[in-house]
Amino acid sequence: MHNLTAIEDTREIAIRHFLDSLTLSLCFKEKNVDVEKNTFCDVGSGAGFPGAVLSIYYGPVLNITLIESVSKKCAFLEFIKAELDLSYEVICKRAEHINLEFDYAVCRALGKLKDIEPILLKLSKKGAFVMKGKELPAGYQFCKIDLKDIKDSYIIFIPKTK
């Protein structure tokens, strides 16, 4: 995977990156988020998880921008966008320096919640989805993911309050 992920086993890549990224679609459904009527940004997209995977899954109805600050990763995101004829945009900048607003922000494996929450909420009009794996901090709304290959995983939803 162009040295963009530490996982090398093909099955593990499929489960821990691709399938895990798609669990956001379950949370969108649970929280009544209509992907066709909202804009999204994926903060810290890395190798395209979850943003590029969601773009493949939903197709052109998903309006998503992938935000990544590492040039090598941005180049990879542009490459797979062209190769797979995907419709997302890539912004190669640190999220803190972006002055755009999307309906929802999403992120996966980005950092400590207390550090990233203000950045995600600055970028979003309605809220943020944070993929936290097995970690569930107290006091947050969440979706619990419990599938055959992904057990007891949590996606935190932080609604934007005015």
Automatic annotation (TrEMBL):
Gene Ontology CC annotations of this record: cytosol
Q: Give a yes or no for keyword Amino-acid biosynthesis in this entry.
A: no
Q: Tell me the domain of life.
A: Bacteria
Top class in the EC scheme? transferase
- Keyword terms, alphabetized: Cytoplasm, Methyltransferase, rRNA processing, S-adenosyl-L-methionine, Transferase
- EC annotation from Swiss-Prot or TrEMBL: 2.1.1.-
Tell me the residue numbers annotated for binding S-adenosyl-L-methionine: 44, 49, 95-96, 108
Query: Principal place where this protein is found?
Result: cytoplasm
Q: Which family does it belong to?
A: Belongs to the methyltransferase superfamily. RNA methyltransferase RsmG family.
Q: What does this protein do?
A: Specifically methylates the N7 position of a guanine in 16S rRNA.
What's the protein name?
Ribosomal RNA small subunit methyltransferase G
The gene coding this protein: rsmG
